[in-house]
Write a structure and sequence with these properties.
Layout lengths: L8 E4 L9 H15 L5 H5 L6 H5 L8 H16 L9 H10 L3 E5 L4 H11 L5 E3 L7 H7 L4 E4 L2 H10 L2 E5 L6 H7 L3 E3 L5 H11 L1
Length: 208
């Protein structure tokens, strides 16, 4: 197991890892389309969650409006998405398993950090730190800063972030990427969902 000088730290992604953000994000995109008069296929948008908001907005708005629309979306988000977004199955138990092992749980996400914190507070999930606005390889900066030994995510971008940080990449097949995609991207472990995480963690610590 990890030494007392370097306690276990596990990083978690947010969207489609700890929270099922599809209902809330769908509602925000629907409201955004109504407000701007620009068609946004909310069903399509929520089928490919993971990358930063701006990447999705470029599919619907001209490049020169993306920053403006992203700010509008983020301002609309708390009043629409927070209350309608549930925790993923096993999310609370996964964070609690890390704590029970004497470790720290940190959330590293591409989501706008203030909104990420609102989600976690609403759901009663209390990580030791929340770092937002980081995607794919850029997540490695936060993972290294917090000394994460494991990073758990649902997207191939999360795998890339873990690999860039030299962190064990644990994937859950609860987002847009299936087990084959996650494995091919370099995931060390692929779990069906977070309900399997506490048992996996126990085995990982026993082998460490």
């Amino acid at each position: 197991m990890t030494s007392s000088a370097a306690p276990l730290t596990v990083g978690f992604d947010l969207d489609m890892t700890l929270i099922d953000s599809r209902p809330g994000i769908h509602a925000v995109y629907t409201a955004l389309a109504e407000r701007t008069g620009v068609h946004v296929d909310a069903d399509l948008a929520v089928s490919r969650l993971g990358p930063p908001l701006e990447e999705e907005l470029r599919n619907w708005f001209p490049a020169e409006r993306v920053a403006e629309i992203a700010a509008l979306y983020r301002g609309m988000y708390p009043g629409i998405a927070i209350a309608t977004t549930p925790a993923m199955a096993g999310a609370r138990e996964a964070v609690e398993a890390v704590r029970a092992a004497g470790g720290r749980a940190v959330v590293v996400t591409a989501k706008y950090e203030p909104n990420a914190k609102l989600h976690l507070g609403h759901l009663g999930i209390e990580p030791d730190a929340v770092i937002g606005d980081l995607w794919a390889e850029r997540k490695a900066h936060a993972l290294r800063e917090h000394g994460a030994a494991v990073y758990v995510g649902d997207h191939v971008g999360d795998v890339r972030g873990a690999r860039a940080a030299g962190t064990l990449a644990v994937s859950v097949a609860t987002g847009p990427c299936d087990e084959r995609e996650l494995t091919e991207a370099g995931a060390d472990v692929v779990l069906p969902d977070l309900t399997h995480f506490p048992r996996w963690l126990s085995g990982y610590l026993a082998r460490a």
